[in-house]
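Hello,

I think I submitted the 4AD job twice by accident. Can you confirm which output corresponds to this input? Input:
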Amino acid sequence: MSLLPTTYIAQIAQHEGQEVTLAGWVYNKTEKGKLVFIQLRDGTGAIQAVVFKKNVSEEAFTAAKSLTQESSLYVTGSIRADERAPSGFELDVKDLRIVSLTHEYPITPKEHGTEFLMAHRHLWVRSAKQNALLRIRHEVIAAAQDYLNSNDFVRYDTPILTPVAAEGTTNLFATEYFDLGPAYLAQTGQLYVESGMMSFGKVYCFGPTFRAERSKTRRHLTEFWMIEPEMAFADQDDNMVLQENFVSAIVQRVLERRRDDLATLERDTAALENIKPPFPRITYDEAVEMINTAAGSGVTVPPEDQPLPPIQWGEDFGSPHETFLAAQFERPVFVVNYPTEVKAFYMQPVEGRPEVVRCADLLAPEGYGEIIGGSQRIHDVELLERRIREHGLNPEHYQWYLDLRRYGTVPHSGFGMGIERCTAWIAGTRHIRETIPFPRQLYRIYP
Ligand code: 4AD
Ligand code: MG
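Support: Only one job matched these inputs. Its output is below.
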């Protein structure tokens, strides 16, 4: 026995003129005399099923009339091409069987506030826009992994429970680890993935990462997914070439395979067609100058049209700065060589200019901010140990990481791309909280 339908709505075109059984949920229902129109969704798409009293049993017609939003059912009928239908097809129903009749589904077609929808996130994910957005997330992840897999990168999974900090000590989630003291949820897999780079040459890790950040911006989650490639015998220039090819491949694949979902979200795709290598590169120094020149002449930045604040050399950029910088370019822009002070301990200093490091943040266009952070790593054991100390960290805890520089060290580079930031940009969704099924934020852990 099988409970599966004979096909799915996404494959409906191959069944024109045939009889099929679909299984799904009622999105909407309308009645007109002897006709019941069911908007049926099955997860792969939506189709209108037309129940004509004369074509079905008395029981089936009564069942059709009783259907409510989000009731689950099987429908059997023949597929007919119909130019007016959004999917291009309709189903002429011959039989219908209710699996479960739903009463008072909380999310109705009328408008609901974001707070209400977020509190019903477990149900909200069924709606057309959320479905489209989460399918784009799926495509971003699949495209990212496929790109790396087909370019000789080996997936190398890194631990989530870790004994020390990797990206600064101010935003760690801590827990007690039996008799061994505190453990921290990983902020990044990078340090561990570097060990795999010494075994395989090219590796990546992919998994959830955690930051106990007290920020409420639309770009921050406390739990987010990051994909982190790492390459041996590669400098920061090689790193950026990989990044621009990687990001372009992801965008082009979403355009190729998820046009319908982008249309559901009313995403303007013209801006995405443009995303091809090479991406522009500017230095942090140049960026500071651009910002201060614009701030001096009263430039404002979206979404609230706040005045662009000036910046001192040595400070990290805030959201308005990133938004302004990205708006100057049609493609994502690399900002390179940030001040050593504002970046992590492991970054390679620029030769002859130790106050800046060989790193880049990749800023997405249209105000989506930093989607990638990456750098060349220090490969010299003494310099790395000194930097660990300067950051107030205990070198004893990093002996295994220093070992990677003691035995066959090589220049190497890597980066991390946040899946939610990337998805928000590609899908054109202002707030990243909708790009993950269950967002974790400062004031949100339910459901
Ligand atoms: O720039 P970050 O902190 O870099 C690292 O963690 C490096 N260890 C990565 C590496 O070189 N292997 O974070 C990388 C990316 C950011 O560009 C952003 O896309 C995402 O991770 N990210 C966040 N996404 C959502 N919420 C947050 N709180 C995020 N923090 C970083
Ligand atoms: Mg960063």
